[in-house]
Specification:
Layout (H helix, E strand, L loop, with lengths): L1 E4 L10 H13 L6 E4 L9 H8 L3 E8 L5 E8 L5 E5 L1 H4 L17 H12 L4 E5 L10 H6 L3 E3 L18 E3 L11 E5 L12 H5 L7 H22 L15 H9 L2 E3 L1 H8 L2 H5 L4 E9 L8 H10 L5 E8 L13 E4 L7 H4 L2 H26 L1
Parallel strand pairs: 1-2, 1-11, 5-6, 6-9, 9-10, 11-12, 12-13
Antiparallel strand pairs: 3-4, 4-5, 7-8
Length: 383
């Protein structure tokens, strides 16, 4: 029997690799000779770096970078096993959790640290980039990132603008002559699962600004700044950011990657499944096991379990999904290739206790064991 495990992490509890190990143990308790192929996966958000680095026997790097409020932070990224591809989560250097609640202000926060991560990876020889842009604290349309990479932005007096969302409206010209040369050799794939335009009522400021600390006036100012900034970019580069679905992701960072770095925005799960060569590893499998911490109706919207199951369906391989929590509306995933769905919870327990890693491992292993005891019973009965 061949079983492929391709599950996302249980956020705050088990990494994708730890979850796969617990699943493997459960399978082997019933089928000791089974071949278990473990493929760490993610959907482009939190856990993407670990999934791809672990899955390719890559390495991690940490650097001191400029955080969202310019103070130093320790930021991590990964380089895949081939030494060519950098895997970066922008939130590592520019994420909302790095800013205390009382200091959140997207007029001030910057993506400069994200640019420093890219620069470090370029210096290490990486020319392929996979970047997740979820969880940002910023609304600067990538200005900070590009400043870290050598681009300059000027105001009407010919002076360099500052950093942060408040600088968008001040910018009247852009100088890209100082852009570091290696950037031009690089290819950027951006994991982006939203289609918001850059500005307007569905744009970056109106939809995401308040959760980053903006009040009503800031939202209006930021939206106007994004609109103005996009006109400057279009004049310089001939690129209309607002026409690009997803340009508003991460406070305009999606648009910045496309306009300044010719980045391609794709659903995160599509990128990850391609990078891990999951379709090839599925060949000849009897079962696929997938999962994530919570499965609900939103799981059909670009989440890992459905991405995996839709791929498995092309090879007619049955899919079993597990989760810490399975909601009443989760049955919709059965229409997207997941054949059976299980919660790992065995008895009433507090959330904190349930997320304790060692307890989670036990729950996963025991439930997988029981699932495959049922499989074995059915095989014996109907063989």
């Amino acid at each position: 029997m061949k079983i492929v495990v391709a599950a996302d992490s249980f956020k705050g509890s088990l990494s994708s690799s730890e979850l796969a190990d617990a699943i493997e143990l459960g399978v082997h308790n019933v089928y000791p000779e089974a071949e278990v192929v473990k493929v760490p996966v993610a959907d482009g958000g939190e856990g993407t770096v670990q999934a791809l680095v672990d899955g390719t026997s890559g390495i991690y790097r940490t650097i001191k970078a400029r955080g969202p409020l310019k103070s130093p932070v320790t930021a991590l990224y990964g380089i895949t096993g081939d030494g060519k591809t950098a895997v970066i989560e922008m939130a590592s250097a520019s994420g909302l959790p790095l800013v205390p609640t009382e200091k959140r202000n997207p007029m001030k926060t910057t993506t400069y640290g994200t640019g420093e991560l890219i620069k470090d990876a370029l210096e290490k020889g990486c020319r392929e980039f996979l970047i997740g842009i979820g969880g940002s604290a910023t609304n600067d349309c990538g200005m900070g990132m590009m400043q870290a990479l050598g681009m300059k932005f000027f105001d009407e007096n010919g002076e360099e603008t500052g950093i942060g969302g408040e600088s968008l409206r001040k910018t009247v010209s852009i100088d890209d002559s100082g852009l570091i040369a290696e950037v031009k050799e690089a290819r950027f794939l951006i994991a982006c699962d939203v289609d918001n335009p850059l500005y307007g009522e569905n744009g970056a400021a109106h939809v995401y600004g308040r959760q980053k600390g903006a009040d009503d006036q800031m939202v209006l100012d930021l939206d106007e700044g994004l609109k103005h900034f996009s006109s400057v970019v279009q004049k310089k580069f001939g690129f209309d950011m607002n026409s690009l679905p997803g340009a508003g992701a991460a406070g305009g960072l999606g648009g910045a990657f496309a306009a300044f770095l010719k980045g391609e925005l794709k659903p995160g799960i599509d990128i990850i499944l391609d990078k891990t060569a999951l379709a090839e590893k599925m060949t000849g499998a009897d079962f696929i096991i997938t999962g994530e911490g919570r499965i609900d109706f939103q799981s059909v919207m670009g989440k890992t379990p459905v991405g995996v199951s839709e791929m498995a369906a092309k090879q007619n391989i049955p899919v079993i999904a597990i989760a810490g929590a399975v909601t009443d509306d989760a049955g919709i995933v059965h229409d997207h290739g997941i054949n059976s769905l299980f919660s790992i919870m065995n008895y009433p327990i507090s959330l904190d206790d349930a997320m304790e890693p060692e307890r989670s491992k036990i729950f996963v292993t025991k439930n997988i064991e029981e699932i495959f005891r049922l499989v074995k019973t059915c095989q014996n009965k109907f063989s």
